[in-house]
């Protein structure tokens, strides 16, 4: 009972600080991540953008990202299942949720974790999400236009 009370208080404090749980990513955020990555081309297939850059689906997610997200999908031990998952928007969104639960943090220093942070993490990864290069990408231009409308 004491542990549950402490957890509830901590969650309330964090939520009051603007730290929304990553599992509660708003639909508008998903829509704008999709728009930023591929102009939400749901017919987008996997493509190789360079070393370590084999990206799949409308969110342009890599195998490593999918693996870090907990490998959502019907058969995570199938090496091709990640392609099937990421080419399906609901499964890709489960991957994004899992990835943000693992890596979500305040990338822009505004004392809250929100869709702007998730977009930075999605594009640059958890270790580069506060780098300024992200703000100079087509991804960021499309995302910020979409999310601020």
UniProtKB/TrEMBL annotation:
Q: Which cysteines are joined by disulfide bonds?
A: 29-115, 34-40, 46-56, 85-91
Which Pfam family is one of those matched by this entry?
Destabilase
Q: Show which residues constitute the signal peptide.
A: 1-16
For this protein, what is the EC number?
A: 3.2.1.17
**Which molecular-function annotations from GO does this UniProt entry contain?**
lysozyme activity
Q: InterPro entries under this entry?
A: Invert_lysozyme (IPR008597), Lysozyme-like_dom_sf (IPR023346)
Classify the source by domain of life: Eukaryota
Listed under catalytic activity are:
Hydrolysis of (1->4)-beta-linkages between N-acetylmuramic acid and N-acetyl-D-glucosamine residues in a peptidoglycan and between N-acetyl-D-glucosamine residues in chitodextrins
UniProt entry tagged with the keyword Transport: no
Keywords in alphabetical order: Antibiotic, Antimicrobial, Bacteriolytic enzyme, Disulfide bond, Glycosidase, Hydrolase, Signal
A biological process from GO: defense response to bacterium
UniProt protein name: lysozyme
Source organism per UniProt: Parasteatoda tepidariorum (Common house spider)
């Amino acid at each position: 009972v004491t542990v549950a009370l402490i957890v509830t208080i901590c969650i309330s404090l964090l939520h009051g600080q603007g730290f929304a749980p990553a599992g509660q990513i708003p639909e508008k955020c998903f829509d704008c991540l999709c728009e930023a990555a591929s102009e939400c081309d749901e017919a987008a297939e996997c493509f190789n953008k360079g070393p370590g850059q084999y990206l799949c689906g409308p969110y342009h997610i890599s195998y490593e990202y999918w693996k870090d997200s907990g490998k959502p999908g019907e058969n995570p031990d199938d090496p091709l299942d990640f392609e099937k998952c990421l080419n399906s928007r609901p499964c890709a969104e489960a991957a994004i949720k899992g990835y943000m639960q693992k890596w979500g943090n305040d990338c822009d220093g505004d004392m809250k974790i929100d869709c702007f942070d998730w977009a930075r993490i999605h594009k640059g990864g958890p270790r580069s999400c506060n780098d300024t290069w992200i703000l100079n990408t087509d991804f960021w231009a499309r995302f910020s236009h979409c999310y601020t409308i």
